[in-house]
Specification:
This protein is mainly alpha-helical. It has 6 helices and no strands. The two termini are about 20 Å apart.
Length: about 140
């Protein structure tokens, strides 16, 4: 997510976005390695905060989090047709847990990793849609 968002801004806008080390977002996966907040939402919070004033950023983030809680995810599934689930939460453990319960896939499975990659794409798309609506 971070590379897609900041990479495009680095190419199209340049400074200060070309100064953001996207590798810093590596540990956001697996709910910050603790199954806490979904890493896609954490990365989105940073992305939103870099392009919005604080009050606007809070509103966009809350809108994104509310969407995440209610959305049937993953929407983006280019490689596999995986079951979708609604998290009713912004926590990785709830989102992934519901997927694993419904699908029978283990946490370390390629299918779970593919699912989370799709969710990251979905969160990125929705974040950009909300930013475009808000900032246009």
């Amino acid at each position: 997510m971070a590379e897609g968002f900041f990479g495009v801004l680095a190419q199209e806008v340049g400074y200060p976005f070309n100064q953001i080390p996207v590798a810093a977002f590596t540990n956001y996966g697996a709910g910050f390695q603790q199954s806490s907040l979904c890493g896609s939402l954490g990365a989105a919070a940073v992305c939103i905060g870099t392009v919005c004033e604080p009050d606007v950023a809070k509103k966009v983030l809350v809108d994104l989090e509310n969407w995440y809680k209610e959305a049937e995810l993953p929407i983006y599934q280019p490689d596999l047709e995986l079951p979708t689930t609604t998290a009713n939460s912004i926590l990785c453990i709830d989102s992934v847990g519901k997927f694993m319960e419904k699908s029978g896939y283990e946490f370390g499975s390629d299918e779970r990793k593919t699912r989370c990659a799709g969710v990251a794409a979905d969160v990125t798309k929705k974040m950009v849609e909300l930013l475009n609506e808000t900032l246009a």
